[in-house]
Amino acid sequence: MRILFINPSAKNLYGQLGTHLIPLGLAYISAVLKNEGHQVAVIDLQVEPIPIETIPFGNYDLVGISSDTPRFNNAVALGRKARALGVPVVFGGYHASFLDEEPLLKNAADFVIRGEGEFAMAELVSALERNANIGSIRGLTYRTKKGIARNPQSFLIEKLDDLPFPLREIFSLDRYLTVNEGRRITTMVTSRGCPFDCYFCAASRFAGLRWRTRSIGSIIRELEQLVQKGYSYISFMDDNFTLDHRRTIDFCDEIIYRKLNIHWWCFSRVDTIVKHPEMVNKMAMAGNTSVFLGLESGNQATLNHYQKRTTVEQQKAAVRILKKHNIKVWGSFILGEMHETKKMIKQTIQFARKLNLETCQFSLLTPYPGSRLFQQMESLQQLMTKNWDLFDGLHLVFQNSNLSAKELQQLLRKAYFKFYLGISNIPAALRALLKDTGTFRQMIYNIHLGMDIIQKLGKDSI
Questions:
Q1: What is the pLDDT of residues 377-434, one digit of tens each?
Q2: Closest Cα partner for 83 from 91, 73, 93?
């Protein structure tokens, strides 16, 4: 079959800013389908601003669209256009996995694949090609003459080594020329699943509570291929790359032994960092230069409500350990938890400044479909809107009894202003310029990011 995959563009500011990186989910599914003899093409509207009217839907037998919640409305428009031309459409990704009837009821899709889509998509394509029954394909939701049918949930992929490497070559690689520290960037995934099930996060519901990993050998083989293709900065997109500290150390030992000239970035947790400083030392030796930490708040009561299972003191200690090894810290904070007061949020803003992080991301608490937070909001009828465009981390979309939408956006704007544009940042910027031009460039980029968000929030109607 001839299959066209589309990655929708983002209307929200966070989706428009930042780096252009290959969507790995589509790259994995494309690799599986190509191995089975199908013709696959991809249009990534994040980097290719093609008008919807010019997309050649009619040249394909099936169109696949994957999106998260803020891009769902764009995905619907694409699906409707393809179906109007007589081409069947399948939806996947986080949003459609948890609200699987919505694309069908909006006449944007004929099929929805819930959860991990590689093998389910291959089964669906094979069945459609043979005009066979699709009732046995696990994880599939679809239209019937009697209404919407939902097959049993699919099994998680147990042996991740069974998956082929992502088919990056199917993308227009000249559009993905993002660099960091003077090195060309690409993304990788070495594990799936997350056992922590944070209250506001849907990742554990999508990929499971059980952590599944690729073998070190498989990871190294992909890395070596990427290095040969000119990539030397790797962003590991695992929900928690360092969950098993022994595995992380083994991985680093292989990097060092093979003398792979790479720098890399990953997600981690503060408690893992604090418990295993020897792991951090090995990470630095193996080329790790930046770590993303979901810090969320500088107030312990708020952390407890988020069910983070971490402490403010652990956060401070983790940042100290990383900085000791010259590893930059990207900290993420969420403002507007239901029990938070204005004073508590200001405490978080001040806490973020004192940590002296290289990069900081602030967003408003958003109940994404699939999270326990969303389920609570639905059951208590606390959602104020289901305009998914507003589920972007910049808008209040639920009833908050402590703070209004206007107050929260003012606090969000203040957070970015204080962190990126405060006068206390000037000495740090001068030190970075004298010591490391790469760090200075990153700081300038971060300041531009903060200014763009402040401008956006200033213009936004509430």
A1: 999 999 999 999 999 999 999 999 999 999 999 999 999 988 887 645 555 544 544 4
A2: 91
Alpha carbons 88 and 63: distance in angstroms, whole number:
6
| 437 alpha-carbon distance from chain centroid | 28
Residue with tokens 């393809």: 82
Rounded Cα distance, 103 and 334, in Å: 29
Q: What backbone torsions phi and psi does residue 73 show, to the nearest 5 degrees?
A: -60, -40
Task: Tell how far CA 23 is from the center of its chain.
Answer: 10
Query: Please, which residues have CB within 8 angstroms of residue 283's CB and are 6 or more apart in sequence?
Result: 242, 248, 252, 325, 327
Please give the DSSP secondary-structure letter assigned to residue 398: B
Contact 100, 107 (CB under 8 A): no
Query: What confidence tens digit (pLDDT) does each residue in 17-47 have?
Result: 445 789 999 999 999 999 999 999 999 999 9
Q: Count other C-beta atoms under 10 Å from residue 86's C-beta.
A: 8
Residue 78: CB atoms within 10 A of its CB come to: 25
How many beta carbons lie within 10 A of that of residue 99, not counting itself?
18
Question: What is Dmax (Cα atoms) for the chain?
Answer: 69
pLDDT per position as a tens digit, 172-218: 888 887 888 889 999 999 999 999 988 899 998 899 989 999 999 99
C-beta of residue 8 within 8 angstroms of C-beta of residue 75: yes
CB 447 within 8 A of CB 381: no
Rounded to two decimals, what is the model's pTM?
0.91
Angle at 294 between CA 289 and CA 295, to 5 degrees: 105
